[in-house]
C-alpha cells in the first residue's frame, strides 16, 4: 500500500489462501456475501452488515468465502493508526483490540453504509481539500466509537460473566506476548494468579478449547506465518521459537498439522 491509507473493494479472488500477519490496519465492511475471518485464532462470521477492525501485527486467515463476497476495505498504515487513536481513551483502544466486531442491521446498517462509509469514500478521494487528512482521521474515529458502542453494549449484556471474559482476554494477550518462551499452562496460570484448573475451565467455557490447545494452536499459527513470509531455515525458526532443535520443531509441527514444516512451506 502506497501512502497512509487506501479505500478499495476486496472479493473472494483477492483473499490470501494462507494465514498472514497484517502490516497495516483495516476497517472491513461486509457489503454482501459471507466469509469466516480468523484474527489471532478468534473466529468471526462476516455477513452483510458486519464491521470489524483489524490491527497491524494481527494474524488473519479467511475461509469459506461466498462467491458473491464483497468487502469494502479501508486500509491504514501503522503510523496513521497512531493518528486515529491519538487522544482516544487508552482503555477503549485496548477493549476494542479484543472486542473489535459489530454487526448492524436495518436502519443502523443503512446509517453505517450510507453515512460513515460514504463519507469515508468521499473524503478519501477529496485530494483538493487541504484538510483531507484530518477529515479522514475524524471519520475513522467516528467509526471507532460506533464499533466500541455496539461491543460495549453486548459486553454489558453478559455482565454476569465479565470476570470470565476478562481472564480470557488477559490469557490470550499474555500468550501472544510470551509464546516463544513459554508454552505451558502452568506458567500462564501462575502469571494470572489462578489455578491451572480454573484457567483451563475458563478458556474452555469462553473459547471452546482447552488452554493448552489454544497455546499450541497459536504457536502453530505463528510458525505457519513465519514459514510463508520469511526465508529463515528450519533451524533458524527453531531457534527463534526456542525449540531445542529443528527435529523437535518438526515433530511438534507435524503432530499438530499432519505435515512437516518443509512440506507446508512448499505449499505456497
TrEMBL record:
It comes from the Bacteria. Gene3D superfamilies: Homeodomain-like, Jelly Rolls. Residues 169-267 form the HTH araC/xylS-type domain. InterPro entries: AraC-bd, Homeodomain-like_sf, HTH-like, HTH_AraC, RmlC-like_jellyroll. Pfam families: AraC_binding (PF02311), HTH_18 (PF12833). Keywords: DNA-binding, Transcription, Transcription regulation. One of its GO terms (molecular function) is DNA-binding transcription factor activity. This is AraC-type DNA-binding protein. It comes from Bacteroides stercorirosoris.
